[in-house]
Amino acid sequence: MNKIYYVYRHINNINDVVFYVGKGTSGGKRGYDRKSENSPNRRNEKWIEYVKNIGYDYTYEVVREFDDEKDAYDFEFILQKYYWSIGQCQCSLMGGED
Predict the structure, then answer these.
(1) Cβ atoms of 26 and 6 closer than 8 Å
(2) DSSP state of 1
(3) In the Cβ-directed half-sphere of 83, how many Cα atoms lie within 13 Å?
(4) Which residues make Cβ contacts (< 8 Å) with residue 67, sequence separation at least 6?
(5) Is the pLDDT of residue 97 over 50?
(6) Which CATH number goes with the domain that contains 48?
(7) What is the DSSP annotation of 60-98?
(8) Three-state secondary structure along 3-61?
(9) Single pTM value for the model
């Protein structure tokens, strides 16, 4: 069975702002569907603070699925750059910075 890679986004339900874009793997931890932060290493501090401030009132959406992980990473970055360019995606960190 081949892995499926997907790119997803977290959307603030209060104002429809996309605040996070990420990549996941089928059979993995499915990070897009976790509503709370149970592991200190799971999300960056900006994400944790943001979701607390909005009362965890967000939804997720799988944007696209891929058979190749590199294609998923490339699309994730393209989508992040788009949202950064319009002032959104503030919880996605460029190049893994903290």
Answers:
(1) yes
(2) -
(3) 23
(4) 2, 4, 5
(5) no
(6) 3.40.1440
(7) EEEEEEESSHHHHHHHHHHHHHHHHHTT--TTSPGGG--
(8) CCEEEEEEEECCCCCEEEEEEEECCCCCHHHCCCCCCCCCCCHHHHHHHHHCCCCEEEE
(9) 0.81
Residue 14: burial class (beta carbons within 10 Å; 0-12, 13-18, 19+): exposed
Total residue length of the chain: 98
> What range defines the domain where residue 60 resides?
5-96
Structurally, the chain folds into a number of domains equal to 1
Could you tell me whether strands 18-25 and 58-66 are parallel, antiparallel, or unpaired per DSSP bridges? unpaired
Q: What are phi and psi of 93, to 5 degrees?
A: -95, 135
What is the sign of the dihedral through the CA atoms of 74, 4, 31 and 19?
positive
Per residue in 2-19, pLDDT (tens digit) is: 899 999 999 999 999 999
The model's pLDDT over 20-43, given as tens digits with 9 standing for 90+, comes to 999 999 865 554 444 444 545 568
